[in-house]
Amino acid sequence: MIRSHNLAQPTETSAIESIGRVVGVEQAKATWQRARESAGFQNGATLSLSDLMSVADELARFDGFIGVMGTALRIRIQTYRILDEQENPPQQNSAQTDL
Amino acid sequence: MSSDFQQAEQGPDVLHDRKRLEALAELDLDEISRDGTLRRIVDEAADELDLPVSLLSLVLDQSQIFPLSRGLNGWLAEAQGSPVEWSFCVNAVRSELPFVVEDAREHPAVKNIPLVEQDGIRCYAGIPLRARNGSIVGTLCVIGPEERIFTEDDLQILRQLADRATRRIQDLAKPA
């Protein structure tokens, strides 16, 4: 969760729910599975945020309105990544800090 | 709460309307971002209204994206979009009417969103952009960090620029 902006981390579940609002739950699951396979992920594998972005990239390549939803998911993931990095900047190791 | 906003809260959400998303699918974001005519329109909007930020914003189902912008900085410039629940433009898309905010801290539709509370947006005016199939796909909008009273002349200028942007977007659309 990005506290400053009250933004929850996008997940596979939230992504499928979003698609489902347009096409219904069953078609959303099937569409997501197709994108997931195109991105090279095995069934059941847990997706990291980077993995989720890879699936969103695949989804964005789909024709028609599904591609639009993929683009929307990409923006949401990208926003989360940028704000997360702002809120939790990568720690420098102590050697670098001492220098 | 404004009547436009109340109306937007009722019934199925147009953001998930397939016809509207199909209209968006006819738009090539890369082509729009490179288009000189639209670039000039976005620049003119900021210049004519004397505000630091102007956008051509397309409102998708769960995010908004800015294929053309002027004056954005910080994370918005990097992301070139945001989650749709933080969007000012979504109000123009849902109501199909211009959405004008003179002081975002006082406006019920936007006063609690992070772009106001965290990122300092104070004024906004956006005019809907209509696709060939009649759907509203986004806005041409201007944004500022200070309160602003938008005059009828201001809004007329923005409407004229948005009319030009609408015609250009419709020309660029590629039916599936």
Overview of the structural elements:
- The complex is a heterodimer of chains A (99) and B (176).
- With 99 residues, chain A is mainly α.
- In chain A, 69% of the residues lie in helices and 0% in strands.
- Chain A has helices at 12-23, 25-38, 49-61, 64-87, 94-98.
- The longest helix of chain A is centred in the C-terminal third of the chain and has 24 residues, at 64-87.
- Chain B is α+β, with helices and mostly antiparallel strands.
- Chain B is built from eight helices and six strands, in the order ααααββαβαβαββα.
- Chain B has helices at residues 3-8, 18-25, 29-34, 36-49, 74-79, 89-95, 114-117, 152-172; strands spanning 53-59, 63-70, 81-83, 99-101, 123-130, 136-144.
- Chain B is globular, with a radius of gyration of 15 Å.
What is the fold's blueprint, element by element?
The complex is a heterodimer of chains A (99) and B (176).
Chain A: H1 12-23, H2 25-38, H3 49-61, H4 64-87, H5 94-98
Helix pairs in contact in A: 1-2, 2-3, 3-4
Chain B: H1 3-8, H2 18-25, H3 29-34, H4 36-49, E1 53-59, E2 63-70, H5 74-79, E3 81-83, H6 89-95, E4 99-101, H7 114-117, E5 123-130, E6 136-144, H8 152-172
Antiparallel strand pairs in B: 1-2, 1-6, 2-3, 4-5, 5-6
Strand content of chain B: 15-25%
Strand content of chain A: under 5%
Distance between the termini of chain B: 39 Å
Low-confidence stretches of chain A: none
What structural class do you assign from the helix and strand content of chain B? Answer: alpha+beta
Order of helices and strands of chain A: HHHHH
C-alpha termini separation of chain A: 33 Å
User: What is the radius of gyration of chain A?
Assistant: 16 Å
Proportion of helical residues of chain B? 40-55%
Question: How would you write the strand order of the largest sheet of chain B?
Answer: 3-2-1-6-5-4
How many distinct helices of chain B? 8
